[in-house]
Design goal:
Blueprint: H1 2-7, H2 14-35, E1 45-47, E2 60-62, H3 65-71, E3 75-80, E4 85-92, E5 100-106, E6 109-112
Antiparallel strand pairs: 1-2, 3-4, 4-5, 5-6
Length: about 120
């Protein structure tokens, strides 16, 4: 997403940026389908500029907007937990309910936080 944010600045170029981003996501999807591989990408978040954060709602919003959200089959969110733990949240998935899982990254790999 950073490349798209650098090349296109301001709201005046938002439409062109979203079109290019959509084309890029479409190409990634075609590659994934052709070679039967998973495509994993990361995104950035920002404070919700609409000022519509209410109690209980997440005040952060993904940078890529609806284009990136609709191009994704599964969306996950990772946030810092206590100590070295991280919390992974299923935000959107066709076959999974919204849920959280806590984990830690160790020298031996990824382990459940309660392990």
């Amino acid at each position: 997403m950073a490349h798209f944010r650098v090349d296109f600045t301001g709201r005046g170029e938002l439409s062109e940026r979203q079109q290019k981003l959509g084309q890029f996501c479409s190409k990634l999807q075609k590659i994934a389908d052709e070679f039967n591989i998973a495509v994993v990408y990361t995104n950035q978040v920002q404070a919700d500029p609409s000022g519509m954060s209410f109690a209980g709602m997440d005040p952060k919003k993904a940078i890529g907007g609806h284009v990136l959200a609709h191009a994704s089959t599964i969306r996950l969110s990772v946030r810092k937990g206590r100590g070295d733990n991280r919390i992974l949240k299923v935000v959107d998935a066709p076959n999974l309910k919204e849920a959280d899982a806590e984990f830690t990254i160790t020298d031996g790999g990824v382990v459940a936080a309660d392990a």
